[in-house]
Automatic annotation (TrEMBL):
This is Nuclear transport factor 2 family protein. Signal peptide: none annotated. It comes from the Bacteria. InterPro entries: NTF2-like_dom_sf, SnoaL-like. Residues 16-111 form the SnoaL-like domain. SUPFAM superfamilies: NTF2-like (SSF54427). Pfam families: SnoaL_2. It comes from Streptomyces atroolivaceus.
Length: 120
């Protein structure tokens, strides 16, 4: 993963940093270990509630496509909210997408993750 960011990756909270490291290599087991039991993940218009649904989402999301992920930005909103912007390039419709991963943390775990298109 290449990094062009206003916040160095090593300054992201451990849960966010390690979640991303696992998510990028499609390791749903490890990625889901950084999620709260009652996590809520929203990806575009779909909502996944609880660690079990979140695990299935992480395991299956994008599995039908080949793509690369590059972190192109990151910033702290406040003590519990962080945003990481990634650029995906691959065999999915459109071929390129920039997405914001908006994290809310609770007790050093990811309590909420909203994945949405990065504003142009």
């Amino acid at each position: 993963m290449k990094q062009h960011t206003d916040l160095p990756c090593d300054l992201l909270p451990t849960a966010v940093r390690q979640f991303f490291a696992a998510h990028i290599v499609r390791d749903a087991d490890t990625a889901s270990s950084f999620l709260a039991e009652d996590v809520v993940i929203v990806d575009q218009d779909e909502t996944f509630r609880g660690r079990e649904e979140a695990y299935a989402f992480l395991r299956d999301a994008g599995s039908e496509f080949e793509y690369t992920t590059e972190q192109i930005g990151a910033h702290r909103v406040d003590d519990t909210h962080w945003v990481v912007t990634v650029r995906l390039e691959g065999s999915f419709p459109g071929g390129v997408a920039e997405l914001d991963y908006r994290f809310a943390l609770r007790d050093d775990l990811i309590a909420e993750l909203i994945i949405a298109n990065h504003p142009a």
